[in-house]
From TrEMBL:
Residues 12-67 form the HTH cro/C1-type domain. InterPro entries: Cro/C1-type_HTH, Lambda_DNA-bd_dom_sf. This is Helix-turn-helix transcriptional regulator. It comes from Micromonospora tarensis. Transmembrane segments: none annotated. Residues 212-250 are annotated as: Disordered. Residues 233-250 have a biased composition (Basic and acidic residues). It holds the Pfam family HTH_31.
Length: 411
């Protein structure tokens, strides 16, 4: 058993011995009884208040995370550097001489996507300004769209949705006449609009884009699969923009557009339409047989089930949301979703628990989100509001009280 696997009482005892303290000495410094210390160390008494854990850590001269068996804290709060991204977006003095995209630039874009998907937002904030400059100078539509999409996604995460919309709009412009690049850019447009509570505008952008890159839904109930396997010659080459690319890249982008449109519909109160769109997205996901996620969508059957949970949350059906959630996290593909995706989703699940009045369930979801992607909880303004609501219960659950302290919400 490693030190991280030890019960917290055993860690207290271990650090007490390392500090050459008896149980009585530790009790005296805590202004508690020796019996209390003994029960803590034996596990007969539960340490469920973060303030007490902090007090113990102070006396034992260790970080609270050490007693909790957790890694050192990720810095909380919005990372510095957003102004540098704003300045990069405001630069128009782009080199006129065209440059061929280099393998190095492609590698940088790929690394930036991985950094985003692992929710290392502080690191990404520092990378994005230089990435934008390089991509603008390269004059490659594909790389420029990707750089703007990364920028937009990051800014939305950090509560800068207006600036995120600007980056998404730049991605649309850079896409030009390429239908698949334009569809990928529309994903970012929809996310930025939804983050501003402009769900109807998001829906108006997302749904036509999905229709342009996907076969039309059939009336048979198999919304996408039958269309995908039907007579391709019956469709004109320009009908859907990606004829000849009926491959999985186009379907993954189209399926993601449907998922985003479903969430926008739910945000508008159009719950039946939201369910229809998720059903259609499920058909698209079922037609995938493995693909290279070139456009970093994370789309697939599990992503659709995640969307069903979020749609239920948005219509206030917490019971359905939580039932679906318990099934989602048991699915084989759950852990293959990017950490950013899972962390953001778990924050939404915490909101569902709050709707049910289950504060401890909400606390568990927040702690799980923090374990998966700490920056999702500690850097995002949205997560702070959930932490505040959960931390109001007294005594606050230890994990959430710790998060509240880390993000500066304690008095």
């Amino acid at each position: 058993m490693t030190s991280d696997d030890l019960p917290i009482g055993r860690r207290v005892a271990s650090w007490r011995v390392r500090r050459s303290m008896t149980q009585q000495m530790l009790a005296d410094r805590l202004h508690r009884s020796k019996s209390w210390v003994d029960k803590i160390e034996r596990g007969a008494r539960t340490l469920d208040r973060y303030s007490v854990i902090q007090e113990l850590a102070h006396v034992l001269r260790v970080d609270p995370e050490v007693l909790l068996g957790q890694p050192p804290s990720t810095p909380a709060g919005t990372p510095d550097g957003v102004d540098d991204i704003r300045a990069a977006l405001a630069r128009y003095d782009i080199p006129r001489a065209p440059h061929q995209p280099s393998d190095e630039l492609r590698r940088q874009v790929g690394h930036a996507w991985l950094t985003y998907q692992h929710a290392h937002y502080g690191q990404l904030v520092r990378v994005v300004p230089g990435l934008l400059d390089a991509a603008q100078g390269a004059r490659s539509a594909e790389l420029l769209v990707q750089a703007y999409r990364i920028t937009s996604s990051l800014l939305v995460k950090l509560g800068e949705a207006n600036l995120g919309w600007l980056a998404a709009d730049r991605a649309m412009t850079a896409a030009g006449d390429d239908p698949l690049l334009a569809a990928a850019a529309t994903i970012s447009v929809g996310q930025a609009l939804r983050a501003q509570d402009r769900d109807r505008l998001a829906l108006a952008a997302l749904l036509p884009a999905a229709d342009r890159v996907l076969p039309p839904p059939t009336q048979s109930g198999d919304h996408e699969v039958s269309g995908a396997l039907g007579d391709q010659s019956a469709r004109k080459p320009h009908d859907h923009g990606v004829e000849g690319e009926g491959d999985h890249r186009g379907r993954a982008v189209g399926g993601t557009l449907l998922v985003q449109a479903a969430l926008a519909a739910a945000g508008c109160g159009e719950h039946r339409r939201a369910d229809e769109l998720t059903d259609r997205a499920a058909g698209v996901a079922a037609s995938l047989r493995g693909y290279d996620d070139t456009h970093r969508t994370g789309f697939g059957p599990v992503a659709v089930e995640v969307a069903r949970v979020l749609v239920a949350v948005r219509r206030g059906d917490a019971d359905e949301a939580l039932q679906r959630h318990l099934a989602v996290v048991r699915r084989e593909g759950w852990r293959r979703l990017p950490a950013e995706y899972r962390g953001a989703y778990l924050v939404d699940v915490a909101r569902a628990y709050l709707q049910m009045g289950d504060l401890r369930g909400a606390a568990r979801a927040l702690v799980d989100a923090d374990n998966v992607a700490p920056a999702e909880v500690r850097c995002r303004p949205l997560a702070r509001t959930v932490i505040v609501d959960v931390a109001r219960v007294q005594p606050a659950p230890a994990g959430v009280a710790r998060l509240a302290t880390l993000v500066g919400l304690t008095r």
